[in-house]
Amino acid sequence: MKIGYGGDYNPEQWPTDVWKQDFRLFDEAHIDTLTVGVFTWGLTQPGPDVYDFTMLDRIIDRAAAEDRRLCLATGTGAHPAWLAKHHPEVTRTDFEGRKHRYGQRHNSCPSSPVFRRLSTEMARRLAQRYAGNPAVIAWHVGNEYGGACYCDLCADGFRDWLRTRYGDVDALNAAWYTTFWSHTFTDWDQIEPPSALTEHWRGPDHTAFQGITLDYLRFMSDAMLANFRDEKAAIRESDPHTPVTTNFMGLYRPIDYHRWAPHLDFASWDNYPPDDRSPARMALAHDLMRGLKDGQPFWLMEQTPSVTACRDVNPLKRPGVMRLWSWQAVAHGADAVLFFQMRAGRGASEKYHGAVIGHAGRADTRVFREVAALGAELSALGGVTLGARTPARVALLFDWDSWWALEISDGPSRLVRYLDVVTAYHRALWTLGADLDVIGVTAPLDGYDVVIAPALHMIKGDLAERLSAVAFRGGSVVTTFLSGRVDENDNAFLTDVPGPLGALLGVRVDEWDAREPVYVNRVRVGDATFQSRLLFELVLPQGAEVVGRYEEDWYAGTAAITRNDFGAGHGWYVGAGLDCAGVTWVVRQVLERHWLLGPYPDLGEVETAVRVAPDGSRLLFILNHGSSPVDLPAVPAGINLLPGDPLVLEPYGVRIVNMIT
């Protein structure tokens, strides 16, 4: 066994004489895993009561004969034209209230009984036909779930969801604070989905009633999860064992992946960073995906071998970058490295999207040669990394509810974005080489010495007590401005900010100042000064030690950063929107206290990560994201698993060291 290597293959788009050429090239590139059938619903069900698996049979039989492993999709990521014609209610109504006609993909109403019945039946028939086929190693349900619908069917579904959540209208009114603006509901049928026609103005994030919008975001995520669960249950009728997944999209706001994670057998995701300068952001997404299943390895289900096609500007991966980013995925937990797409389509919106095999079918392109070279490396490495885990003693909390609640709030600043704050603190951890898990707020915290909780806006359940327990036993907890503000219904705590975190942090916040991006307030920490922007909380110590103070404006001298002794550990509070250097300074203090800095914390764009294999081997990954060579200090003793000078890392270079312990 080795890391799965291959990707999305759509032979239904080409004549069969092309298939022969494809499989010859797959051999050259060491391709062993293919995802097939992702968008085949229109072929496998060409009419209401007609099923035709002729094409899919040929695809699966040919791939199996070529000894390829298959991730078989249910094909329900886009419904066929006849379905929309016969049942127009299956198409979505958008935020503006417009009923969509047939077209695009992600155009299926998740609450439509017809869509749910027919998509489930498609999954059922596929499983009945292909369960037990030894080539099928995984099932792929739907594709990149997302978006939202505001139709009457979803309105009814929302009301049912609310009945289950609240039980009666009085409880709902209390949760939504409906005495404001005379919004008290007296019957369930008075409730409307929050859209541009009801509670919103100037877009989805501008809402009069945050509680209503927050619950609709939760409902829509759950509605699409119900679609996934329908299809998985249908597969399980015929195939009780083969793992089932769907491809997530990393740092994707509309779907709460923590709510979905228990229903997937393994996590998988599609890595399409916004530019070619985001290695830390990709690391965050990898860590988040790994954390969904308690540290289990995930699949990198899609990445481009060269270029995307869906953006205004689509930069090309430079020589060596595809290899580097693939190894980065493995360093953070990937047991499969797959591409979209294996062969470039001739038409439609993805004809210029990068592919392993281009339109000309050549093997002498730079892209194909790089794919083949990586395939050879993965084959030579074998199964050394399979099943390996990250030995993290640092946790970064990531919470979709806090993300949603913070960004739909009126005030203090719409320019403060949850993901920006989380990314800043993750980047500091990444730069300093800490091995970490990105986990949800309900995950156990017992195994961590450090917990970083940026912009922990919403405090749910016993989270405050569990964070306090981390510090009490000697650990460190770090949180920031806009934390501890609201409960699970997005209602403010009737106590001093930061609410239930007050005792742990030893502070109180009465006032805060929000400014435009050009305004800078400096924060002095010892002999160092850092810039802060956007939000400035005036922190009043209630036992905490002042670590940093503002230097500008009428609140110069007010505390901006504090550290509170709590039991044997500390609770840190960062009330200012610090720049990158300031965030890194805070995180470094915490990591140094617990001896958790990585081996090369000051080597610029060099990333390190450790995975521990099932046999106990400790694998150190060293990756150079820079375009210049880097001289490494002494490398830990061990066996180099990839070729190269152990003390000089070439541009975009990678080393894997099996460390001797």
UniProtKB/TrEMBL annotation:
EC number(s) reported in the record = 3.2.1.23
Which reactions appear under catalytic activity for this entry? Hydrolysis of terminal non-reducing beta-D-galactose residues in beta-D-galactosides
Could you give a GO molecular-function term held by this entry?
A: metal ion binding
Active-site feature positions: 144, 302
Q: Which GO terms describe its cellular component?
A: beta-galactosidase complex
Similarity comment: Belongs to the glycosyl hydrolase 42 family.
Residues recorded as binding Zn(2+), renumbered to this chain, are 109, 149, 151, 154
Question: Which residues does substrate bind?
Answer: 105, 143
All copies of domain Glycoside hydrolase family 42 N-terminal, residue ranges: 8-380
An example of a Pfam family matching this protein is Glyco_hydro_42
Q: Which intervals hold domain Beta-galactosidase C-terminal?
A: 606-658
Q: Name one GO biological process term.
A: galactose metabolic process
Protein name per the record: Beta-galactosidase
| Superkingdom in the source lineage | Bacteria
Which CDD domains does the entry mention? A4_beta-galactosidase_middle_domain
Q: Sorted alphabetically, which keywords does the UniProt record give? A: Glycosidase, Hydrolase, Metal-binding, Zinc
Q: Which residues form the Beta-galactosidase trimerisation domain?
A: 392-594
The record's annotation in InterPro entries points to: Beta_galactosidase_C (IPR013739), Beta_galactosidase_Trimer (IPR013738), Class_I_gatase-like (IPR029062), GH (IPR017853), Glyco_hydro_42 (IPR003476), Glyco_hydro_42_N (IPR013529), Glyco_hydro_b (IPR013780)
